[in-house]
Each structure stands twice: as structure tokens, then as C-alpha cells.
Specification:
339 residues; 5 helices; 28% strand; twelve-stranded mixed β-sheet; homotrimer; ten-stranded parallel β-sheet; alpha/beta
Chain lengths: 339, 339, 339
């Protein structure tokens, strides 16, 4: 595809040779004459100078840093993402049911559904048009998968789980296992029946080996456009608002509600029954112990507004020195200011 | 079921209309006239006032907060758990072997066993009476599963694993993988054979994608009544005492022994070779680096008794301010007390 | 096997009865007269005194602590690991393809390959000589598995993944799922195509339910001799250097490069785009937020050199007391030194 056509389709302008033919995408370091690359991080400035890329996507303000053909966009990473999808389209689905797949007679399948080898579809499941069920997936009783959604191999959707349209779920993800509900009878744990479902919106991506438990009474709800990375734990009754992105290894305890357009970095933990408002960012490995009512960036264990946390952390690294200075003052307060 | 009968069966008393017919359970916010709800958290007091529930389970001291039919119990959550199990009984098992399941000729199956689609049962495995093996489970050589235990779809029990009676294991759990045993030969890691087993007691629940490694020499042991949430790592040679509950994303390093009736919150880490006594609670995302010999609540990185931790954490949030005050004192100690 | 033969084969010397016949290995506490045990941790000195083991592996300096037959080695744990492998050889592979396995016609299989029940091998996959594919494994299109590598049951290798020789991958591991690449279009996340692969060297071990994502553009690379424990997240574009060992529950963010011969303890998190040099040790539950250019031991949140971290942590536990002492000084600086 020519650079000029690409620019038009992803929403950008061209500087330099718009007729440049591009066949794929690559990093600045590896791209060749038929490949498109991108530049967003100033740390890679030297690589930009040295690149052999056929064209580079960059921001208007960086246009002067590169002499070759450019695709100039206000959000270069977004333009690059779209260009990559155009140059590397996902392989076309070949509809059909593998003979080793086990599909219950009462399941309803839309048009153009693909069910791969050894997948299991239980009673009363519904697969929308164009759904792809990967090898060895398990789709439980009454599960609904919306049109265009795709399950990679070995996804487990337990009974009653609802998946919206155009979702992508990666291997090993488990949706609908029982929440961790226990009552204590003089030292012995008694299971609280877990009667809710997992309900996932449209355009959601769920990472490998992530677990989303069914609600205890009400449902566990994942909003539209939510993106979940790998190895995340979403407990029973959690709600995640639309267009929130959560990185790997996050744990969200029961009944916590996370707002829309939040960004949760890796390894963060949330205690249960919190309300996090929209537009909150939590930095990596923080522990959120209280509800958050004001948009912003939060950090730490327990999490506080990130500015304060950073100051306190930098003081923490001086803590031994601070303690020694305090001791010196205590011993000889009159002289301390002379040092 | 009538409220009066329910109260009798779960161990509580009735106030108001004991003839109220109840068909299910629901939250205060959603329950209708034929549904039972419960009240234990004072934060939901408004919802209690507004509920349309047919009856509510609550503690004797809260009985005055609700005018409708009540099921009064000293442990209302426990009574509710039991009522929910009575009103929503688990679907009856239909025994039988799915024709796609692969069962080795030397495996021994008890009465009323169910083996679902595409499950694999290897040589010399033993399944007790009433065991349910979910779709696509892998039951390795010589594995023993006790009577009444239930494996959800896609559980992996590697060779030699022993499971007690009435256990419930969720999808993606892996029991019996090799422990992480390595010796170092001038920079190159040499595998230490992992020769022990995983031995699980009775009435244990194991969450989705949790991993429990086999012992290096001795067994890894999970006591009776232990409840493990999702995405937990239990390393080789760990022992978990009876009736201990562990929330999601906890990691327990090799050979650590956790006592009975402990409660470990989410995201906690234990280093190896520790001994944790009975009746210890560890709060979320703590790191336990030393053995604990006294029952109590522990917190922090590294974990200490929670009272001290909370004080120090609150000081941490003043740390930048403390450092400034110290500097001011150093500069002008005589005047500091005048501010 | 006789102790003398064992010593010769693992590289050690004998003290005492070299004709002692040994059939297996066990802990000091459990070993009997035909079993070999080992002693490396001084905490187990009493067990050494009381052991009924037929022979014990120990260091030259500890030889005097035990009167029975000894295998003396400079690295006793390594010698024990080798002895255990000799006394408990892995069961011999029986080559062959289970009739329920699904192997694409275009896949190429070496000599002596074993493919177990219900495994799936997709188009153009290549399995080297002596490869073992466990029950219900999924080997995607174009995957290469090197000679002598072994996949335990239920491993998922997505399209294009490359595995070297003599690797061992445990159940539930997922290699080659999409990296978490997202661009933001006015609040809505747009997927960035993930076009790289996962490339794993020789002699690598990968733990249960660990996830290694494919690179966005370049590959995610795991070096030779790397050992990964369970439930680890390796994001897109990460490189892990040869002979690095990483314990459970670690998360490594995108494009971070970890050097060779590093040791990463459990629960550690790395932010993205870091460079960690060779021979770095990171202690448990640390968060690495900056590149590390000097070999050594690092700890903390954020990680710093461990010596400083330990001092500051010990001060942290005095923090409330320090704050009170500061307040006292402020109130009465002149008297503080009299206390």
C-alpha cells in the first residue's frame, strides 16, 4: 500500500514521497525500505536517525527529526496501530465446525461460525454470527457469545457467562468460576453459593490465564471496551467501567467498582467494596485500600495521590540518614545547625 | 420453602410472618417478595430500609432495623449461606462416562462417578464414589480423588496427586507440577528432581488457575477444610493447616508451613522455610519474611504486627513533612518550638 | 547403586562405607538405610545428628558432623541433585502418536516423538527428535519444538512460537498470546497488532500457568538455560538473558531486558523499557522502576541496593517513634538531649 493511501486511511498527512510502497511494519532498528515504522519515544531518537525504514509515523512536532517519507499524525501511535492493522490483516476466518468439536444439540450457532478442534459447546449456548471458538475451548451451558467475538484456544466460559460482540479472549482465561464466598462456622468454612454470572460488554479483550469469577448474587460486570491483560484476578461482584485498561497481575477484591476510562498498572491490588471514580490512574504495585472520588494519579501502599507518594518515597530512601540526624539533634540540639 | 422451615433448618428464629414462601436469594437491592436477603454490613442500612425482600436474615441486635419477616441468627451470613444452599441446590449429578472421555483400563471408578466430555484418566487412577470429573480434565497416573469431590472443567492433576473427599477444584488449577528446585553449577542451573506429591485433605476448595507444586522429596500438603482462591502459587513442600483460607494472588515459597485457622488476604507473599502458627491473619499485599509464633494480625513489607504497621504507615504519609521539620530544627533548633 | 559409584558419577569423594547400596533419596528426617540424603542448611543440624539415612551428601567442612557414610562435595546440593537424577531416572519415553491426537498433515515430526492423548498439532509445526507432547497440548501453526523438549499436559504454544532443545514446559503455560498493546483514540482503546513471536532457547524450564506474550514487532526472547517458575507474566518484547532464574508471581513489563545470570525472587515487578545488567539479584516483592547497570542485590519499592533498603526498612519500623521524638525536639529542643 502506498504511503499516501495509508495516510488517508489512518487519518494523517504525508511529508516526502507519498508513493512509497509499504508492505509491513517494523521497529526503527529493523525496518527496511518497504516497511513502516513509528517514533513516539524521544529515547529512540538515535534509532530514528539511523533507520532504514521506508517511512516513519511521527507527530507534527517531530517531523523535522526525519528526512525520509513521513506519515504525520497528532497521535502517531494510534496512526501506527491502524496502519499495522491495514498492512497485517488478521487471517480470514474459515467458517465451519471441526468434526472433533462437541456441540450440544440445543446450542444455537449464527452464520459463519467457526468451531475448532476439540472445542466443547454445552446445552443452550448461543454463538453469534462470525464467532470463532478456538481449539479445546469450553463453552458452558447457556453461555452467550456475541457476534464477531473470538476465543483463542483453551478458553473456559462456565455456565451462564455472557460475552458481548467483537471480544477477544486469550488462552487459559477462566470466566465464571465460583467467587471466594465463605461463611465461618466456629472455625470451619462454609461455602456461600455463587449464583451470579459474568457479563462482559462489547469490544473487550481478556488476557491469558486471567480469571473472572461469577457474582455471588448479582453479576460480575465488565464494561464495553475494557482491556484486561494476563493473570488478572477479578473477584465476584466486581464492576469494571467502560474503556478501562488493566495491566497484568492485578487483583481486584469482591464487589469493588472501578470507573470508566481508568488505567490500572501492573501488580496493583484493590481491597473489596471500594468505589473508584472515572478517569483514575493507579501506578504499578500500588494497593488501593479506600474509595477514590477524584480523578487523578494514585500510587503507593496504601495508595495516595501520586505527587505526595513520590515525595514520601524519596524521603524513605533517606530514612536512615534522617534518623541519624534526628539522633544527633537529640544529643546536641544546640550544635546541630552549625554542621 | 417457608421462612419458618428455613429458619429451623439453618438454625435461627423467625420474627414476623413465618409462612412467607421463599423461592430464592438476592441482594437487598434486588430481592423481591419471594426472595430472601441478608444484612450484615451497616453500610447497607439504607438498602435494608428500602428492600422489597420477602424476608431478611440479620443478627439479633439488628432485628429492629427491619419490619418485615426476619430470620434472626447469631451469625447471619452463615445462616444465609445455608439458606442459599437449600434454596439453590447444586444440580443433581447424572453419573456416566462420556464416550469421548479416555479412561485407562487400570483406573478404578467408584459408584455414581461422572466423567465429562474429553476428560483423560490415566493408569491406576482411583475415583471415589460420586466423583465428578469435568470436561477436558486431566487426571494423571496414580491420582486418587476422594468420594464426592468435584473437578470443574479443565483441571490438571499430575501423577500421584491425592485429593480427599468432598473437594471442589476450579478450572485451570494445576496440581503436581514440578517444584522450582535448582542447583547451580558454575552459573548453569541444574534441575533437582521433584519426587514428592501433592496431598490434599477433605473439604478443600481450590480456585481457578491456582498452582500447587509437588514436593521435592516430601509432599506438599493441603489440610482439611482449606480454601484457596484463584491464581495462588503454592511451592514445593509447603504445608497449609486445616481450615486456613487464602485469598487470590498469594505466593507461598518452598517448605513454608502455615498453621490452622489462618486467614491470608490477597497478594501476600511468604518467603521460604517459615513456620506460621495457628490463628494468624495477614492483611493484603504483605510480605512475610519471618516465622510467626504468636496468633494475631500481621501487615506490611516486611510484615509486623498490624498495630505497629498502621502507625508507621500513617507516619510514612507524613514523611516529607517530617523531613522538612527535621531540617528546620537542624537549621534553627532554638526557634523550632516557637512555631 | 553403591555410594562409591554415585560419588564418582556426581563428582565427589567418599568417607566411610563406599559399598553402601543406595536405592533412592529422601530428607534427613525420613531417609532410611537405603536412601541418600543431604545437608546444606545448618538449621537442620539436629536432623543430621538423628538421621537414619544410608549416606549423606555434605560439604568438606561439614564432614565431621556425621559419622556414617558420606558423599563429600564442594557443592553438596548440586551433587545431591545429580545423585537424585541417577537414582530416580525420569520414566522412559514410549514414542508414538495417540490415536486421539490431531496432527495436521503438514506438520513434521522427528524420530521417537511422543504425542499424547488429545493433543493438537497445527499446520507446519515441527517437532524435533525425541520431543514429548503431553495430553491435550495445543501446538499452533508453524511452532517449532527442539529435540528432546517435553511439554507436560495442557501447554499452549500459539502460532509461530519457537522452543529450543531439552526444554520442559509445565501445564497451563501459554506462550504466544497477544501482548497488551493499545493506542488511545479519544478515550477508546485501539488494539495494536502483535506481530512478533516468542523465541525460547535451549534447556529452558517454564512453570505452570506462566504466560509469555508474543512481541509487538520484534520477538519476545527467553535465553538458554533460563528457569521460570509458576504464574509469571512476561510481556511483549521482553528479553531474558541466559541462565537467569525467576521465581513465581513475577511480572515483567513490555520491552524490559534482563541480563544473564540474574536471580529474581518471587513477586517482583519490573516496569517497562528497562535494562537490567548481568548478575543482578532482586529480592522478593521488589518493584524495579529504573535500569540497573551494576551487578548486585537490589530490594524494595522502588528497588535500590539492598544494603540501603534494609537500613531504611529497619528505620521504617521505628518511624512512629522517630516522629514522636522529632515532635518532642520541636517542642523543647534544649532539653531533648537530657533524656
Amino acid at each position: 500500500m502506498r504511503l499516501s493511501e495509508l495516510a488517508q486511511r489512518v487519518g494523517g498527512s504525508v511529508a516526502g514521497d507519498g508513493a512509497r510502497e509499504l508492505l509491513g511494519v517494523a521497529t526503527l532498528a529493523r525496518a527496511g525500505a518497504t516497511e513502516l515504522s513509528f517514533f513516539v519515544n524521544r529515547r529512540y531518537r538515535r534509532q530514528l536517525a539511523d533507520t532504514a525504514a521506508g517511512a516513519v509515523v511521527l507527530a507534527p512536532g517531530d517531523s523535522g527529526l526525519f528526512a525520509g517519507p513521513r506519515l504525520i499524525a497528532n497521535n502517531p501511535y494510534l496512526a501506527f496501530a491502524r496502519a499495522a492493522a491495514l498492512l497485517h490483516p488478521a487471517p480470514q476466518l474459515s467458517p465451519g465446525i471441526d468434526p472433533t468439536a462437541r456441540i450440544h444439540a440445543s446450542a444455537r450457532l449464527g452464520q459463519g461460525v467457526q468451531v475448532q478442534v476439540q472445542a466443547v459447546i454445552e446445552a443452550d449456548a448461543q454463538l453469534g454470527d462470525g464467532v470463532q471458538i478456538g481449539a479445546a475451548c469450553y463453552v458452558g451451558e447457556g453461555v452467550v457469545v456475541g457476534a464477531g467475538s473470538r476465543l483463542a484456544p483453551r478458553v473456559t466460559l462456565l455456565a451462564g457467562t455472557q460475552i458481548g460482540a467483537r471480544c477477544l479472549i486469550h488462552p487459559g482465561a477462566v470466566l465464571g468460576a465460583d467467587g471466594f464466598g465463605l461463611a465461618n462456622d466456629r472455625g470451619v468454612w462454609v461455602k456461600v453459593p455463587q449464583l451470579g454470572r459474568v457479563v462482559v460488554g462489547d469490544d473487550v479483550e481478556i488476557g491469558a490465564n486471567t480469571t473472572i469469577d461469577r457474582g455471588a448474587l448479582d453479576d460480575t460486570v465488565i464494561g464495553n471496551g475494557v482491556k484486561l491483560d494476563n493473570l488478572i484476578q477479578v473477584a465476584h461482584g466486581v464492576h469494571i467501567g467502560d474503556h478501562t485498561a488493566i495491566a497484568a497481575c492485578v487483583g481486584i477484591s469482591g464487589s469493588t467498582v472501578i470507573g470508566r476510562h481508568c488505567v490500572i498498572a501492573g501488580g496493583v491490588g484493590f481491597v473489596g467494596h471500594l468505589h473508584i471514580c472515572d478517569h483514575v490512574t493507579v501506578t504499578g504495585m500500588s494497593m488501593v485500600t479506600r474509595s477514590i472520588t477524584r480523578p487523578g494519579v494514585y500510587s503507593g501502599i496504601p495508595a495516595e495521590e501520586a505527587r505526595g507518594w513520590r515525595r514520601n518515597v524519596s524521603r524513605f530512601h533517606q530514612l536512615d540518614e534522617l534518623a541519624r540526624r534526628l539522633l544527633r539533634l537529640e544529643r546536641s540540639p544546640k550544635d546541630a545547625h552549625d554542621e
